[in-house]
Amino acid sequence: MSQNLKSWDVDTDEDTMKDLYLCFSLEERDYAFEVRHLTEILALPAITTIPGTAPFLKGVINIRGKIIPVMDVRLRFDMIFKPYHERTCVLLVELDGLPLGLIVDTVNDVLKIPQENIDLAPKIGESKSSRFIYATGRVGDTVKILINLQRLLTEEEAHLIKDIPGN
Fold first, then answer.
1. What InterPro entries does its record include (predicted)?
2. Do 99 and 39 form a contact (C-beta atoms < 8 A)?
3. Residue 109 CA to its chain's centroid (Å)
4. Could you tell me the CA-to-CA distances from 126 to 81, 97, 130, 131 in Å, in that order?
């Protein structure tokens, strides 16, 4: 049994996650981020709202006694709110040591996107959501929009989230 546990050595784990991206959908568009940032995928839990926060911050969830702030990625990208449904889920990620839940329409799959299939995103317009996009990934005949999770929160927003009780 200890040999099986050794297979999860950090160096080996990083190699197996190389070029892997978690793909999800918003508004029938495919987005992806490096799977190494993902902690867990959850069915949409009960969310406790916190008055006075940004509209894209939906509140907090309690996961095994840990309070985690939750962001609706659709609203962060300036998309129209869409009622949650049975496939809506929360992606738990960690950004610079800060746990964060990301509400997305659907989770699609985990794909391997080799570096040679990734192109820096063209600068199209000055929309607020373009700051989150760093590249596109070619997968067969489709294109995935690759997002930089570190840019989902400004320094000020991250600081405010850290001040939420339980963080």
1. CheW, CheW-like_dom_sf, CheW-lke_dom
2. yes
3. 13
4. 21, 30, 7, 9
State the Cα–Cα distance between residues 140 and 144, nearest whole angstrom: 10
Give the confidence band of 2 by pLDDT, cuts at 50, 70, 90.
Answer: very low
DSSP label at residue 81: P
Sequence-separated contacts (24+) of 126-130 with Cβ below 8 Å: 127/78, 128/77, 128/78, 129/76, 129/77, 129/78
Environment class of 27 (CB within 10 Å of its CB; exposed 0-12, middle 13-18, buried 19+): exposed
**Tokens read off for 89:** 């889920």
Rounded alpha-carbon distances, angstroms, from residue 136 to 38, 72, 103? 19, 22, 21
| Cβ-contact 48, 61 below 8 angstroms | yes
What element of type H or E holds 157? helix 155-162
CA-to-CA dists, residue 116 to 13, 139, 144, 163, angstroms: 22, 11, 14, 41
Per-residue pLDDT reduced to its tens digit, 32-90:
999 999 999 999 999 999 888 889 999 999 999 999 999 999 999 999 999 999 999 99
Question: What domains does the chain contain, in order, with CATH numbers?
Answer: 18-162 (2.40.50.180)
